[in-house]
Amino acid sequence: MAAMTQTVMAVLVQVWNLVRVTLVVPLLRLAIFLSLATTVMILVEKVFAGIVSLVVKIFSLKPEKRYRWEPMRPDLETGNLAYPMVLIQIPMYNEKEVYKLSIGAACCLDWPSDRMIIQVLDDSTDLTVKDLVKLECENWKSKGVNITYEVRNNRQGYKAGALKEGMKHDYVQECDYVAIFDADFQPESDFLMRTIPFLVYNPDIALVQARWKFVNADECMMTRIQEMSLNYHFKIEQEAGSSTFAFFGFNGTAGVWRIKAIDNAGGWKDRTTVEDMDLAVRAGLEGWKFVYVGDVHVKSELPSTFKAYRNQQHRWSCGPANLLKKMAMEIMKNEKVSIWKKFHMLYSFFFLGKIVIQTATFIFYCVVIPVSVLVPEVEIPQWGVVYIPTLITVCIILGTPSSIHLVIFWLLFQNVMSLHRIKAALTGLLDAGRVNEWIVTEKLGNAHKPKSTDQFKDSSNTQPLINKPKTTQTNIWQRYYFSEIWVGLFLLSCGCFDIATRRQGYFIYLILQGIAFLIAGFGYVGTYVPGS
């Protein structure tokens, strides 16, 4: 019996050696080559964007210097008619914790009340929340604010459908521009005064995008890590896109559009879950310019539960990939913009920024590197494992220098999220599964509650009126994330194998990354809310 067992084991070893040499090794070498090539491409893109943003900062090339900008003032003869008519759209869906904040901030904008219409687009299915939002609008209306409360009979098209429906009302025909704020966004009172002049004095500008500022960045480690990534996005990526090709992706909120440009681009479309990016790409192909104004900050809330963050990242990763699939040929055939702008859209904006960076991260750091430990015939050059990833990380972390001590945690968490992002990106490219799934990001609202009584004109109107949901029981499939757990166990196994064989020396990274996956898989990331 023992002899037979030894014979079977010997045969299995021979088969494995044959498969490894003839199949695994060539495929792994190809994967290493592609992974190294994509990391170099990502590094070049990061360095280019960093140089552009650095030049803008050193030479103070602010938008006010590149475009005409003059402060808005009432005319002696026409009075407030010198101010253009502005529509403020606030789409919301069951925003029980934050609905008063966005409405209150919008109603306190420094702009003539007769030249501004605030439109609350409420798609709420919770009748209690719906009544409270309507009551809030009526309260502000009784104070002389020009605010309307609009509802639909269905949620078709989700946010895009609500925005599109909102534009159909007769009073919108009076407006020249539309500012959009999600329910948890709180613009400063001078928001319109600082953004509208770009549109008034520059007829070729379609969009003015402000920067997000996060009120709950210090709530937990996960929100700190999100802040680091989003600060890089705004400070570096959006700045570079605005300064070079006058194009970038609209962030869906905290921006002002020229209504004529929206109509010219075909209006809001709900064919993907990134209606904001869809509109921006179509407007860009029509030749319109975009301006990012980094000095204008709009307060908002980061998702602080892991479940909410995963849902948000699914939408942000799946939507762009699906949009690329639907618009690639349209971009290539476009004759209204230069070939360089089309190249920027296809290569830098979509291929690298939305596809490669989502897939290469997981494949290289969570598949190729650990598998190479198991295959002695394959080695990854040190510059590809250490130097280039370090340079990419440095480029990103410079967006938030105050959090540089968290860089290791940021790196490990990004690799954990890469699993979710690659699944979402593939879903979008294949147009399958959850491709059109839209789950509104949960806002807890705690960090948004004003600490002083003078934040708004009526501070009593900024407190949520309904309590937190009661604790509910969740089963094991909802409480734990098994894909993260399995990847974590795989990485830990490879790390232990590396220790036993003393081959590559990757065990420190593999064990730390494996532990990070397990921590996320068991739900010990972010703020825990019972029933969430």
Automatic annotation (TrEMBL):
Q: What is its EC number?
A: 2.4.1.32
Q: What class of enzyme is it?
A: transferase
Top-level taxon in the UniProt lineage: Eukaryota
Record key words, sorted: Glycosyltransferase, Transferase
Keyword field contains Transferase: yes
List the protein's name: Beta-mannan synthase protein
